[in-house]
Description:
With about 375 residues, the chain is α/β, with parallel strands linked by helices.
Amino acid sequence: MSNKRKICVTTGTRAEYGLLKPVLDEISKNKKLELYLIVTGMHLSKKHGYTINEIIKDGFKIHFKINVIPKGNSSYFMANALGKGIIEFSKIFKKLKPDINLILGDRGEAFASALAASHMNIPNAHIHGGDRTMAGIDEYIRHATTKISNLHFAATKKSKQRIIQLGENPKYVFFTGSPGIDQIKNNHVSLKIELEKKYNFKLTGNEIILLQHPVTTQIHLSKKQINNTLKAIKKLKIPTICILPNSDAGNLEIFQALKKAANDSLFIHLYPNIPRNDFLGLLKYCGALVGNSSSGIIEASYFKIPVVNIGIRQKNREKGNNVIDVNDDSNLIYITIKKIMNSKAKQKQKTEYIYGDGTASKKIVNILETISLNDELIRKQIMY
Length: 384
């Protein structure tokens, strides 16, 4: 019988997996820890590129799969998927009996995992808690997950302080930085020549990456918002790499608009999914990122790439000076993109290391290995 500490990790989206991968690598290398991986959510969606194949390609053993893709394009189906997730996670935890349940961020799959674990006295370890946005349900889930978690791995110093202000025990709140930076610091990024060959276009530094998700408190505006962004891009006629949005309510309108734009315009290219190494490479060699993805806030600053952050989804998240916030007005988006694509403007970007020094995964795994799993950790109480 193994004496290794069982660490169960849930991943439900391509973006979340990209942040988690360095942590998974470190757990796998650690002789005192045993990794158990649960794959769920968009990873099992053909529409979103069936990214479970990317996880398998990276060499990770997948121990459990949970299919909780919402069956429709509304908040009702998102809520249904959450309920199903709790049931399925509880079955897995009953069988596995993990020592720690590790989750990241603010997605429904991670919240379902954390809820099931907390009811079964399994300590939750939460990465990227304490972040601040206006992303609707993501914001609710992130802070709710903090309150049912026992260990906290904050991506910024301010996030650490917010977690403590939520009443968590400072003893169990750690500033580790974001593990998403680790991969960049370790140069696990696709080369320019590889990207050009694989995607069949020349990277000149004047391309745009478009990654825009629905806002769950503005579902009814999804079509208008993406059409305004696309109107600006079409007017600029800049080569654009579009990646499909997440599976939140409102995604169908964005998907349809992107598909039509790609069919109508030779300079707009649409991809269901782009592997993490390739995505980081594109961030490194393209001219700008446009949309409302956290990638524009966290990873893009390390490549000194300008970002046009549209709408409220990432509002209030800590940002570097490479990010320009705009509303969803088409003309304003057009003017802003045109301005930042100016070479002089791009040269002015400076790297800000808000999200750590690229050693987050080592710090997180060291704590997972050495932390005492005692009654104090489980019997948490508000600290004020």
